[in-house]
Design goal:
Blueprint: H1 5-12, H2 16-23, H3 31-41, H4 55-69, H5 74-88
């Protein structure tokens, strides 16, 4: 898409510094931020996670996801599910 960090930051309402930190992998963005970035970049959220998992890693990852979802409210879990569905859809 060819956006600068400054243009992307402005488009999603974040600072350029924060975009840089996320881009370098020094900080993980929230689900809401991932959704905003994906929408702005016109790409599915799953494209931020390009590496497929082996089955053992997938089982461990699923356990981790369940642990992350457990303390959330129903609304937060629904939003997280939408993010996961976007990441995992094949279309």
């Amino acid at each position: 898409m060819g956006l600068t960090q400054a243009a992307l930051a402005e488009a999603v309402g974040l600072t350029e510094q924060y975009i840089g930190v996320v881009e370098r992998g020094a900080r993980a963005p929230s689900f809401r931020t991932l959704e905003a970035l994906a929408r702005t970049l016109k790409t599915p959220v799953r494209d931020f996670f390009p590496h497929p998992l082996a089955q053992e890693e997938a089982d461990e990852a699923l356990s981790d996801v369940i642990g992350l979802l457990a303390p959330l409210t129903a609304e937060e879990r629904a939003r997280a599910l939408k993010v996961l569905q976007s990441m995992l859809s094949r279309g």
